Predict the 3D structure of the following.
Amino acid sequence: MKRWRAWGWPRTLFARLALILCVGIAVAQVLSFWLTMTERDQATTNLMMGYIEREVASSVALLDHLRADERAQWLPRLARRSYQFELSSGVAGGPVDARLSARIERSIAQGVGHAYPVSANAVPGDGEHLQVHLRLTDGTPLTIDIHPMSGVPLSGWLPVVLALQLAVLAGCCWFAVRLATRPLHLLARAADTLGPDLRASRLPEDGPSEVARAARAFNAMQDRIATYTTERMQILASISHDLQTPITRMRLRLDVMDERAESGKLRQDLAEMEALVKEGVAYARTLHSASEPVCRVDLDALLDSLVCDYVDAGKDVAFARRLAASVVTRPQALRRVVGNLVDNALKFAGSAQIDVAMRADGGVVISVLDRGPGIPDELLDAVFEPFYRLETSRNRGTGGTGLGLAIARQLARAMDATLVLSNRNGGGLDAAITFDATR
């Protein structure tokens, strides 16, 4: 496949099918034209041989019966497009070796050779040229000067008609391929829009039976996925609600228990359980965070208010650069994503810096920068998996629940943005949220 791409092989199915069909039709058209012209030339040549045999025999017999002083004026009348008569011995030359000339020589010999002994020779020069020599009954030399024609000349309008025919066939192929691949394009677009909100546009269930069946299957799949996700959300909500009650009872019992060393540990375990339940439910709810309406957001104002909240809380967070840019997105989801990234930076580096930049294509990039230990390059994608923690200890204070980055990525997808982590030169991490130029 790489070799085919190096030859300019197109990437899309539409272009490939159109190219194959158009090239195949063009080759078939050329072969058909060649076969037709070959058969036409052969049939014309066979017809011409019989014509020459009869015409030359009649002309020689007529010249032989005319008086010597009348023959010259008849020569132009007897001339044809491929041969003419001369009352002379002609020119000398070599033997006839061309296939068409040899056939003409045999035809003339068969027509007049029984009454007039004939001889033939090729005339040197450009093109196929021969002369047939004989003598009339009174001894007058007669030469038939022949320029063989391989076939009937091509009509001037035929290439134009063939080109128009090829264009019509290519247009029909293009339309047929477009008609055949359009359902695939619609299916791919519907699959791309099937995001976390599960609100992809439904495919029209019409057209050919195969297309309608695929559309019905895709729409049914969307419905099943939405049903399964809703059921999962209901289960998680129920679990969260039911777990709150025993956790509360356990807290109350700890409050009436005597203060022991185990009491503090139990309170810490209950706090971790409660945090884990809340973050688990928060992660599941991010799949449906697209319910928040989108609007145009002033990034400077949103990020500045976020930074001010951290500064008021005594955190080392700075807004490095203002861009006076805006994006169409879900403001609460964006605020939560940036907040999660800032929290991670504060946890591992003690400080964070927010930067906004404009890409060359018009996209906007929000970067959360820190000078912490960073993440090994081979784990930059793995940290987005739910419950994945670089800190392998059971201490939630250092390792966390492993859901913060997973929630951030889910929210970014709900905003039609991308979240990518990369290590900075000199140490630290760069968490970049990118919005396309269309936003």
